[in-house]
Recover the amino acids of this structure.
């Protein structure tokens, strides 16, 4: 059932843009414009409040397609935000949002969210797919995404274990379609995985990460 839900969502990817387009229209007036333009100095709490409508008050989001951002290592968080700013990462909304903040403000935000605790999402998943995904993870991904994807070697990776299922599946698809460039070594593992298992392998991995709940 979840698999069907996912594949339907995958077929209508343009919907992703529309949903977030509406989100932005709805929230942008209060939340996205960088307030520093008006006040000169701005506290981290105020900056971070412009993220909470989507990512939750402490960086733990409740939406299935919006990632939780609590606990992402600081340097990597800043790297991601700068990449969004330069359109180097595929995004529905983050490209525009990141552009509204200066580098200093993004550093403040990275510092803020990296200190928050990541809370795995309580979400439905398919146990059969998750079991298969666990094996695939061990073979292709554990080398870098350690401890089942809950830890980050060299502290330069987002947390995968407990991340939202739909977001993970979309992100894996971005890698598959080369909309997002993986590092050379990760790209090699992804190619092997896709050759062996195709999309079913990506489904299994996403369900495995989603299955890791407290
Ligand atoms: C309108 C909803 C929305 C708002 C507001 C928002 N985000 Fe996002 N964020 C998203 C979505 C959706 C994604 C996935 C990428 C995309 O499609 O743009 C994302 C992705 C991210 C990621 C990447 C996570 C990862 O694991 O790679 C980071 C970091 C992030 N956002 C930080 C922020 C910060 C900091 C703010 C506040 C300045 C913010 N976001 C405001 C919706 C939002
Ligand atoms: C050689 C190390 C390496 C291997 C192996 C690897 N990855 Fe990664 N992965 C990374 C690095 C580094 C990043 C962050 C930088 C980037 O965006 O490319 C990343 C990012 C990701 C992200 C994006 C997370 C987010 O929210 O932004 C996902 C999803 C992911 N990897 C899944 C996988 C899966 C699934 C496998 C196994 C098929 C895998 N990776 C294998 C190093 C690796």
């Amino acid at each position: 059932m979840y698999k069907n839900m996912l594949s339907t969502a995958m077929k209508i990817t343009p919907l992703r843009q529309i949903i977030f387009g509406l989100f932005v229209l709805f929230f942008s007036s209060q939340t996205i414009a960088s307030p520093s333009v008006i006040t000169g100095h701005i506290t981290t709490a105020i900056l971070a409040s412009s993220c909470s409508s989507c990512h939750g008050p402490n960086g733990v989001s409740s939406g299935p397609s919006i990632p939780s951002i609590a606990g992402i290592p600081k340097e990597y968080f800043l790297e991601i935000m700068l990449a969004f700013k330069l359109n180097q990462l595929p995004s529905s909304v983050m490209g525009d949002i990141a552009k509204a903040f200066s580098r200093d403000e993004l550093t403040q935000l990275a510092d803020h969210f990296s200190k928050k605790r990541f809370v795995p999402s309580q979400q439905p998943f398919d146990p059969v797919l998750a079991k298969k995904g666990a094996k695939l993870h061990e073979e292709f991904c554990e080398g870098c995404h350690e401890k089942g994807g809950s830890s980050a070697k060299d502290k330069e990776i987002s947390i995968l274990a407990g991340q939202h299922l739909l977001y993970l599946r979309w992100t894996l698809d971005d890698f598959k379609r080369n909309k997002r460039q993986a590092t050379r070594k990760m790209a090699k593992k992804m190619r092997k995985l896709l050759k062996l298992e195709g999309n079913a392998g990506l489904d299994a991995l996403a369900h495995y990460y989603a299955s890791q709940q407290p």
